[in-house]
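Structure representation:
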Amino acid sequence: MAVSALAAGCADNSIPKAQLPELDKSNPLLAAWDTPHETPPFSEIKLAHYEPAFDAAIACSRAEVEAIVKNPKKPTFGNTIVALERQGELLNRISGIFFNLMEADTSDEMQEIAQRVQPKLTELSNDISLDPELFARVKYVYEHPGRLKKEDKKLLEDTYKGFARSGAALSDADKELYRQYSSELSALTLQFGQNALAGTNAFTLNITDPKVVAELPAFVKEGMAAEAKARGEKGWTVTLQQPSYLPFMVYSSNRALKEKLWRARSSIALGGEFDNTQIVKKIANTRLKIANLLGYKCYADYVLENRMAESTQTVNAFLAELLGETKAYADADYRMIGDYAASLGFKGELMPWDWAYYTEKYKDEKYALNDELVKPYLKLENVKKGVFMLANKLYGLNFTPDEKIAVYHPDVTAYDVTDADGRFMAVLYLDFFPRASKRSGAWMTEFRGTKIEDGKETRPLVSLVMNFTKPTETKPSLLTFDEMETFLHEFGHALHGMLGEGKYESLTGTSVYRDFVELPSQIMENWATEKEFLDLWAVHYETGEPIPAEIVDRIVAAQNYLAAYSNVRQLSFGLTDMAWHTLAEPFDGDVEQFETASMAPAQVLPVIAGTAMAPSFGHIFSGGYAAGYYGYKWAEVLEADAFSLFKEKGIFSPEVASSFRDNILSKGGTEHPMKLYVAFRGHKPETKALIEKMGLGK
């Protein structure tokens, strides 16, 4: 849900003041905020404030919508479409805070509140989208638009389609079914996410024998020791969180322990106390019911109608084309690593829990490159400096820490973001380290978006949430190369949000088609292997010496290491996503077997019984990527083609950066993404750009 301007009360859509709900201004979520840039006063917000605030804000939204419906004047773009866009500001403010913090700093009590609040929000959403009088007004304006500017036309089109796609044109009986299904789906996806987090946190591996950890690099042992200490345990502890799990898998030769860890991570919420298998089936089947009710054969058909790809056929053909181009190379990658492991004395079939260990060894031997070699030059503070520097070179942005801005956790830092002319662009929150209250992964989100209302511009409050390696008692946070790429990726999303321009929040920043939203993020990863960029900031955290040219050369040489394998692995996720969402009949089979079959065309490593990713695949079962995971590969094609222009003109080219900002980053969802892309690049993207970038066939 987008987060609108942080108004102190209900928006005034000509509602008589006596009809507005009374707001308890002692509740900080309902009061005006006298804070820098009207940022949330996190230190004042208590858990007890949320439910009363939600109830009051829902009442506000209902009053605002009723005023639109009961307006005696003829429906117009202003009194109906714009009024709908503006309603719900208070609710969006509260939802933006609550649901973002539930991902980044949750608690059992917060999750219980969500279970109580979510049905109320779903009911409100359904009451609005299924209101026949309101839809009649929207339809009238859609059929009698008058002369509108481009941005206004897009808002009108999106509003009408949003109602139609939410059941507004259904019969009364089918509307009730839609209401039932959407309520069930909302509850299911919420429970899925909570189970996945609980399942991730439920498993740890505690080691007390010093011999088991003796071979590990110091940073791995220190991290494990710190984890054990934090849990009140002796020795060394590994969790299923990526910064803890991956280093152990990479550097330990203990196959038995690694198999145990791999199986645990690959079967999160697959049975047991936090089982998600029944929920996965219910989510897939409920989505199918909704799609059928709205006249679609499957859920993917429903979703993809509103995507850059536009159809299930296009997506399936896209995945098949990329798979056909790269699968043989991925199989060759597996054989190469298997042969290498055998040369070191490994016997038998290379298993998934062996992969990280031998791929790292091979990279170290062939390219003289490993995480331990690179990490001293990737101190988190220096990486952050480099990322900020890149944003400055490309877009003239400046980042100033602002201690007056309240943060939601001591780990978080807030920055004022200004452009080259000193114009305030955004607040940026950075939240880097894992904790039990934070879900795994990395993401960008907003507490508030961009809009212009009554001549006043509201700028966004953007947050980047990551799970990077923590500092230890003896070392600062030193990032792996992959973590640096993750930082650049998420920062690309942040730029999309911070540089957005426009009148309507639902059309600005990252409010774009799902398969277009990853272009601004994935293009940023390209700078990670650019020597000209690394030379500006990458210095040894102890000596201050610049990263040696030979190390940068090795990074560049290794950038396509296992590119085909990584590509096919991503395609396998897209294939299983499409399989779940092209179901045309209700599914009651075995989740593990279904996943194995759906991913079989892209399978490279051996299949291991008793494992499945679906029960913890939050992207498609509790996030926004249902029938959309292909979008990562789709965006890779876009960014490979787009970055080739930077390579041609210069990686800091003001001309290319200005065009990318004007045509992509600032435009948001105001135009169809293909038009925006062609305006920037001059032609439509082709998959060959990605194949060439991966260096395949050379």
